[in-house]
Amino acid sequence: MHYCHSCDTQIAMEPHDGFAICPICGRMDDGAAVRPLFVVTGASGSGKTAVLAPLARLLTGRCITFDVDWLIDAARDLGNGPPVRWPAFQEAWLAIAHGVAQAGMPTVLLGLFIPRHLEELSARRWVSDIHFSLLDCPDDVRRDRIKTRPTWRRHDVEGQVGFGKWLRTHIDHHFDTNEGTPEDIAVAISVWVIDRMTSPRSQQEDS
Ligand SMILES: [Zn+2]
Prior knowledge:
- This protein is α/β, with parallel strands linked by helices.
- It folds into two domains: 1-32, no CATH class; 34-206, Rossmann fold.
- It has eight helices and eight strands, in the order ββββαβααβαβααβαα.
- The longest helix has 17 residues, at 182-198.
- The structure holds zinc ion.
- Zinc ion binds at residues 4, 6-7, 11, 22, 24-25, 27.
């Protein structure tokens, strides 16, 4: 993402105190602030779409909030059609989070990401702590939600229930979208985000 403009070969720079530093020649470029990334993950039917708008409003001025699916069509087109190249897709979102950080703000992503996938990416170094939480609901509620969708969104019900179970055992912090309105859940998520932004102790627990 940051490459040295002094070295004759393409050298990837490293982040340091808001600067990008070339490990070969020592060149320092500014504009390389890093901020935390918050990921609200969940299998299909978790309620991510309903939570997006109220959450984005609640975090106005503190974080920038995105639904990762907004780039799915572009990702398909860039790859000349399906399947989406997921590592490249996730790299793109880390790059966006790094861009948002230059305005001094963390990024919140609603989307089906898991921690291990992000940790392995080359752009990982350009965000600071990554905090994960899970949007969850009882399995029968998920089945009902997916089955009542329009036909084009009604896919892979049992696969998503299984993935939801897997996430439940691998992500520590949960929000149950069956226990409140989308606005209620958005408030709870915003409290979690702001707490992690302002509490060094909480950040250590997540890392
Ligand atoms: Zn250099």
